[in-house]
Amino acid sequence: MTLPTDGTEAVAAVFRLEFGRAVSVLYRSLGDLDRAEDAVQEAFAVAVARWPVDGVPAAPAGWIITTARRRAIDRLRREAVGREREAEATELLALATSLESADPGPVSDDRLRLIFTCCHPALGPEARVALTLRLLGGLSTAEIARAFLVSEATLAQRISRAKAKIRQARIPYRVPSAADLPGRLASVLAVVYLIFNEGYSATAGDRLVRDELCAEAIRLARLLAGLLPEEPEVAGLLALLLLIDARRPARLDRDGAMIALPDQDRSLWDATLITEGHTIVRRCLVLGRPGPYQLQAAIQAVHDDAARASDTDWRQIVTLYDQLLRVQPSPVVALNRAVAVAEAAGASAGLVATEPLRDPLADFYLLHGVRAGLLARVGREMEAAEEYDAALRLCGNESERAFLERRRGLLPEG
User: Fold this and answer.
1) Predicted local distance difference test score (pLDDT) of residue 138
2) What pTM, to 2 d.p., does this model score?
């Protein structure tokens, strides 16, 4: 990626790309997540002050990591008050030096190792995912809170408690042994999936797609597939990300406006990624151990099989969603199934399928957006307008808001 020449814009770009890796490297050195994150944040604060004046360094990521390490050491020395604190600081500095030169083991990727550290079974499932997304996913606390449908303060408390538990329990910074993997793998896969989701449909801001997050999620999924080649759900996740990412080139028009799946120019879809994704899905089918990511990948494979939107086999997609609901019952899965039902059996049937979801997904803008579209299709324009208004109140991404506004504008006035 070519960085902007403007120093302030370059800092923002490097933050999006490198914050997670920098925290991972510092954590390997310091053994303390709070210290690592604070040091990296201080380094970026220094960059904000210096880069617009001195220019962007030749190796910006290395500059951030070096500056963060120096800041961490300076802070340790400042905290060394009295002999006991001096001894503690000396011990930590010695630990940092030894860890820096230590053999990383079979997996040298710092980000992947930190994901496994944060997904320790001693932490609650939601805390694992939230903490990892905060440190590695390039997501703010507010963005993660929206994904979990909780307040920002509640999520901040969960993340703080998770960091403290890692520190107090001395959870090791490593990929666990094969015997320990089942307790962590589901959370690790969820983290990678949510990183990709935030990249493909950003929860807030003026960009719909954050390409760097999509690329990072796929990179991590490939690393996991290499580490665990016999795990069908790992393969299923990789296939799912590839099959969705193949459509990314057609997702925005020249002005950056969102294009819905049925209206996309399918000649722009990445045929290489689709072929790779289909190959993995077929391999998973042979194993006969279907899981949530494999089923989602199969659904996306059906979408990508259709040369035109009208060729989509919606009945097969409904069947796959039925299977997915059995292994992963959730309101969001049920909402996606309702969309497929509307295409297979008509908008009225789709509306009926959304009725049980109105309470559990009352604060989810996509429920209101889906219902608005279906209500418009059956001629209930006033109700459709109300649903569009509800979706607009809840949607935080400017590109998606513009899409909803365009759809609402197609309704008859009054």
Assistant:
1) 60
2) 0.81
